[in-house]
Amino acid sequence: MRVVYMGTPDFSATILEELAAHHEVAAVYTRPDAVRGRGKKLVPSPVKELAERLGLPVLTPRTLRDEAVQAELASFEPEAICVAAYGALLPREVLELPPHGCLNVHGSLLPRWRGAAPIERAILAGDPETGVSIMEMEEGLDTGPYCVQRSIPIAGLRAPVLTDELAVLGVRALLTALELVEAGQAHWIAQADEAAVTYASKLEKGELDLAPELPAAQNVRRAQAASAAHPARCLIGGRAVSVEAALLACDGAEPVDPEASLPYRREEAAKLPQGLAPGQAAFVGGRLYLGCAPAAQASPEAPQGLLEVVEVKPDGKRAMEAAAFAAGLPALREGLACWEAVAR
Predict the structure, then answer these.
(1) Which CATH architecture has domain 2-200?
(2) pLDDT higher for 35 or 87?
């Protein structure tokens, strides 16, 4: 099938590469180059870099509402437009252009988590699974019917890893949907149950920061949902770090299900630091623990909330194992240190 592809981040690039191997990609649309990094230079999107490498025409209009832009898009004569995390809404004139419609690869099991950050919101909510939906686009935000869905357990996966897994799942689902659409066999399922709709609003700056007053499980999920764009930051022993990986050691509520989506370390209670208050950090048995608020359902016998820091990235340095970081903090070597949220 002859298609036009629209996407921007790495998630979209993964899908484009496989799509181009199976269908004729007439053109690729992506967001304009953006200023990124400390150098403040204009950097092309991952989709633009890949499209140029594949020798595909690349266009970067700031809007699709311009009549000249729409005329240029029509000149490619797409049978379908495939979209994955493009970063802009498609106007009605574009939606009505291809005979087989505009198909969106959305990273959630619609109608759950419509919107900008479905993967991170699924992690933060503690969903046991997520997935992808191939949706027929409408003018509303992710309101269209879907014809293919594929699910995957979250199983403690961090957001960048889960995103990669969903991209692979998404392109397979997209190829299936295109085959069904071309054969006239696609069965579109309306998102009729408005009670099941949830919205995945974009992450705000500092939203994933860790804080002692939060339950351990909530802090762990923030670290799990974090990425380079939205790190899970805190201060440990006065040093600013991004927590790259963390496990739930104890939330005061027993038992913790090791099959749940939450990263969890099964550990004998006797090996855990005892009496660690929220805001205290301890290095015990070669492992770095942070005291957090107990879970709401914590039992009186096990009221403490503990998370184990597995990997950190100190500001200005590379990521390192938590044990290596802790070894460089005198306060931790001598006993307890303090940890706290970063000031915003």
Answers:
(1) 3-Layer(aba) Sandwich (3.40)
(2) 87
